[in-house]
Amino acid sequence: MYAYLKRIFSWLLMLGICLGMLPILPAEVSAADNIVIAGVDIGYADGSFFTKNGKTCKDNNNYNINGVAKASCHGRAGYSCANSTDPSCNCMRYWPTGYKETCQIDLRGTQCFGFARYCQWKVYGTYDGNSPSAFMDLTGVITESQCTGENLKQKLLGCAPATHLRSRSSQRGVHSISIISTSDSGVVYVDCNTDGGCVVRRFTVSWEELAQFLRRYGGVDYAYSYGPNQPAPDCGCEETHSGTYFCATKKDNLTIRSGHGVQYASVGSIPPGAAVTVTKASGTGENDWAHVTYNGVSGYASMAYLQKEQISTPIPDIQWWISDPESGEALDACKVGGSYDFCYRLYDTVSGKDWDAAQKSNYTVRLTLYHPDGTVISANQENFTEDTGRIVGSFTEPGTYKFDVAVAGDFTITQTHSFEVKADPITVNLSLETVSLVMGEKEKESCEILAWATGYHSGEWVLNWKADNETISCFWGQWDNKKVPLTVTAKARGEAQLTVSVKDKNSGAVLHSKTVTVKVDALEYTISYHANEGTGAPDSQTKYHGATLRLSDVKPKRAGHSFAGWSPYPDGQEPAYLPGEGYDLDESVELYAVWLPGCEEDAHDWKAATCEAAKTCSLCGKTEGEPADHTYENGVCTICGVREYAGLRGDANGDEKLNYKDALLVLRHSIGLDQLSEAAQALCDVDGKPGLNYRDALMILRASIGLETLN
C-alpha cells in the first residue's frame, strides 16, 4: 500500500510541476536515513560517498576495481575525473555500477557536477544535460560583486526541487549543489565532494550564507530548474531593428531558441553566412536578442552573431616581423650578440581582423628558427594556439638564418622567411691608469679600464697578468659604451706588466691593447718563535701573502732535553713544523718549541768512568761504556775501598778459621821469620796502615778470642 501511495504522490507531483504549481517541499529523511528530495529517496545519506565502491576517493586504502588496488583518483595532482572509465578512478559517472556497459544512466560528469544531475534524474527521470528544453536557467551569470543573499533569494525562491546551481570558475575551481527546498529564511541543499573525497552532505543555510559560499567561487554560472514548456516572458523587443541580417559565426551554426535567452531549448539553427529575417530585437549589442525566422523556423537568436552586411568567407593568413624586445620596435635585421622577438599574427585577409576565437577553429602555430647550417636552434621552436605569439632568438655569429611559421589543424599555412644577422665593426678607445695593488686583501684596488665602443656590443676584453713572462690570470667580458672598472688580483710582489687586449668576439682579432707597469705590495704576516722553557729561540720572520716562507734553521737548547720541532700550541706534544720547512698559510703565528727528554747528541756533559760507575752525563744521567778498573794499594781500592782479595779477614793460613795460629804467622812475617802470600797479606793488614806488623798480629789474636771485630 505504501509503495502504491508513493507512486500516486509522484504522479501528482509531476502534474503539479507541469502546471507550474509545484509546492516547495521540505527535505525529509527516510527510515534508512537517506536524503529525500520532493518525496523521492535519492539513495544516499548524509556522510555517504557518491562513488563506485561507496568509499572515499581521497584516501581509499582498500580500494580495488578491476584489479587496480590502493588507487586514488581525483586526489592526484593534475588528474581529471571527467573520464571515469579509468579503472583507477573511483568517481561515479555511470550510475549505479560505475561502468558504461551496465549502468542505468550516464550522468556525463562526476563528483559535485554528476551528483547534482543525479538528483535531477532521481526526481524527474532526466537531467539538464539530457533534456535541456525541460530546464530553464533562473539566474544566468551572477558575478561575485552581484552575488548577494537578496539577489539569490529574488531569483531562486520557489525554484523546483533538485535545481542544479553551478558556481563560476575561479582559483578554487567550480562547484555544483542541488537545492532541496527554499523559504524566506534560506535554502536547504545537498552536494558532493566538498571535502575532495566525494562525500555527500546536506546543509541548511541562510540566503546570505549561500551567497558568501558562492562568492568564494566567483559567483553563479547558472541555476537549471525543472519546468518544461514554460513560455518565455515578454522581452520588450522593438521593431526598429527589423530587417535582413546575416549569420556572422565563423564555423558553427547559430542556435534558434524557444525563448529569449540561452536557458531556452533549441528549436533550429542558422548556418554561417546565411540570411535571416529579424522582426524585432532588444538592441544590436552582444547581450541583445532578436526575433528571427529562418527556413520556416521562428524563434530567438543572439544579436552578437547577426550583422547587416553580407558575410564574406574568411581567408586566414600570417603576418610576421622581428621586434626589439625592449622597445617593441619592428626591425629590418638582427645583429650578432643581440636578443630579438620573432612574432607572428594570424588574421583574416578579408576583414583584416585577428583570426580570433569567434572562428572556433582548431589550429596550432609552430615557430622554428634555423641556423645557417640548417640545424634547428635549440629551445627556439614552440607551438601556439593563439592568434599572436612570439619566440626569442639570439645569435653568436653572422649569416643567413631562416624563420618558419607553420599552421596546422582545420587549415594549413606554411611560410619560410630568411633574414640576415650582421656583426658591426667595432672601434675602441682604451686607456689605463697606473695602479698600486696589495696582495691578499678581499677588496682589491681597481685597475680602471676606460673603454668606449661604437657599433654593436660584440667585443671582449682579455686581461693578462705577467710576472717573469708568465701569464698568471685572464678575464673576459663585454662593454656597453661606458667605463669598465676591473678588479685585479696581484700574484707576485714587486713590479709586473699588466696588459689589456680588446678583441673582436667573432673573429678574435685584437682591436686594441695597452700595457702598464703595476707596483705590487703584499700583506705581511709575522712568524715568531718561543723557546718554551729553553733558550736561544730564533728571531721572528716576515711572510708575504701568497708566498712560501722557509722557517729558521736555528734550534733552541734546553738542559736535559732534545729539540723535536715547532708547534702552534704551547703544550703541543707533536711538532707541526721542522726547522727549515716551508710555511704556506697566509696568517701570523707564534711557534712553540717541542721538547723530548734527553740531551742532544753533541750536548752531553760527560763525567769520567770510575770503578763505581760507567761514563755518565751530568745533565741527563745517560751512561756510556763500562765502569773503570779498581786502583789497589795494599789490596784495597783507593777509590771505592774494595779489597782486592776475598776471604776471611785475618785468616793468614787459609783454613777459613781465625785463631792464635793466624796471629803467630803474621808476627813471624813482620820480623822476617816467615813469608805470607800477597793475598794473605791483604787479608791480614787490618790496622789500616801499609804493611804487616805486630799491631796486625795483636788485633787478629784479640779478634780470635772475641775481643775485637775486624773490618
Folded structure, characterized:
This protein is mainly β. The protein has six domains: about 20-225, no CATH class; about 240-305, SH3 Domains (SH3 type barrels, Roll); about 315-420, Immunoglobulin-like; about 425-520, Immunoglobulin-like, CATH 2.60.40.2550; about 525-595, Immunoglobulin-like (Sandwich), CATH 2.60.40; about 635-705, Type 1 dockerin domain, CATH 1.10.1330. It is about 10% helix and about 35% strand. The protein has seven helices and 49 strands. The strands form 14 sheets. Strands 8, 9, 10, 11, 12, 13 and 14 form a seven-stranded antiparallel β-sheet that branches. Strands 20-19-18-15-21 form a five-stranded antiparallel β-sheet, with no helix packed on it. A five-stranded mixed β-sheet has the order 24-30-29-26-27, with no helix packed on it. The longest helix has 17 residues, at about 1-20.
Question: What keyword list fits this structure?
Answer:
711 residues; mainly beta; SH3 type barrels; Immunoglobulin-like; 6 domains; seven-stranded antiparallel sheet; five-stranded antiparallel sheet; 7 helices
Task: Summarize this entry quickly.
This protein is elongated. A hairpin with a 2-residue loop joins β19 (289-294) and β20. It has 711 residues and is mainly beta.
List the helices and strands and how they pair.
Elements: H1 2-18, E1 28-29, E2 34-37, E3 40-45, E4 64-65, E5 68-69, E6 94-95, E7 105-106, H2 111-124, E8 135-137, E9 142-143, H3 149-156, E10 163-167, E11 176-182, E12 186-192, E13 200-206, H4 207-215, E14 219-226, E15 243-247, E16 254-257, E17 266-270, E18 275-281, E19 289-294, E20 297-302, E21 306-307, E22 316-323, E23 330-331, E24 334-335, E25 339-348, E26 363-370, E27 376-384, E28 388-394, E29 399-409, E30 413-422, E31 427-432, E32 436-439, E33 446-454, E34 459-467, E35 470-471, E36 483-487, E37 494-504, E38 510-522, E39 524-530, E40 541-544, E41 549-550, E42 561-567, E43 582-583, E44 589-597, E45 606-607, E46 615-617, E47 623-624, E48 632-633, E49 636-637, H5 660-670, H6 678-684, H7 694-704
Parallel strand pairs: 24-30, 32-38, 39-44
Antiparallel strand pairs: 1-2, 2-3, 4-5, 6-7, 8-14, 9-14, 10-11, 10-14, 11-12, 12-13, 15-18, 15-21, 16-17, 18-19, 19-20, 22-23, 22-25, 25-28, 26-27, 26-29, 29-30, 31-33, 33-36, 34-35, 34-37, 37-38, 39-40, 41-43, 42-44, 45-46, 46-47, 48-49
